[in-house]
Amino acid sequence: MLKRFKYILIFLFFLMMNISFNSCKQKNTTDESGEVAQDTTPIGKRIADISIKIGKDPKNPQLFNDRAKLHLERNDVANALMDMERVISIDTTNPSFFLTLADVHLAAGKPGKSKAALEKCMSIDPQNKLAYEKLAELYFIAQQYKEAIKNLDEVLKLDITNPKAYFMKGMCYRDMGDTTKAISSFQTAIEQRTNFDDAYLQLAMIFHNRNNKLALQYYDGAIRANPKNTDALLWSWIVLSGERKKL
Asked: For residue range 24-46, what is the model confidence (pLDDT) as tens digits?
């Protein structure tokens, strides 16, 4: 029993030493602003460059906003949120800052706070297309398709040629089961952006499920628009090889 207890103490000792070592190691590779000093990746270098600028101009909200975007790009949500909290403490009048804040909150799994940030953005800039677009995405994720379409219509009032808005409306109609309107929306998206491979692919899948050979044309369109679209390549191969008997 004593021998076993001795082994437990030894294990705990080395465990604590390992935790202490890792903690010290992290401190040694982290500067005073919370950035990883030895990060030599391209994005790490960009963060380091902005951090130097922040040291010289600590009241510049744009610098913190830019660094938050980079943190978000490498999925460092905690540091992105800290930077955005600093941004909003300095300036609450720039709508673009609230767009970034919305992205950070969404990445943090807080759609309610993301929605609030977007609404704040729109209260400052009622014609901000990106805010309506991002809010539509939130509603789409929540499967509130009518609200999503409502916001996408606002985008189209401001930009009638916006291909993404038409594509997103198509996705809403698709999930609502209205394939006729979905087809119309996806086709309009392609009219506005001829290389919109995802719109081609959605059309291909709709016609595929209808056992309509138009699917092949849309699969081909998706591949021509983006030869690296693996979904289009796979499904077109399945259809052409005869493994899918619906066509």
From this structure: 433 333 344 444 456 789 999 99
Nearest to 95 by CA among 118, 77, 112, 66: 118
- How far apart are the C-alpha atoms of 112 and 135, rounded to whole Å? 11
* Helix orientation angle between 61-73 and 42-56, rounded to the nearest 10 degrees: 160
Phi-psi region of 178 (alpha: psi -120 to 50; beta: other; left: phi over 0): beta
Contacts of 124 (CB under 8 A, 6+ apart): 93, 94, 95, 98
Residues 69 and 71: their CA atoms lie apart, in Å, by 5
Q: Is the Cβ–Cβ distance between 49 and 30 less than 8 Å? A: no
Domains defined along the chain, listed by start = 42-158 (1.25.40.10), 178-247 (1.25.40.10)
Q: Record the tokens describing residue 156, joined without a space.
A: 């189209």
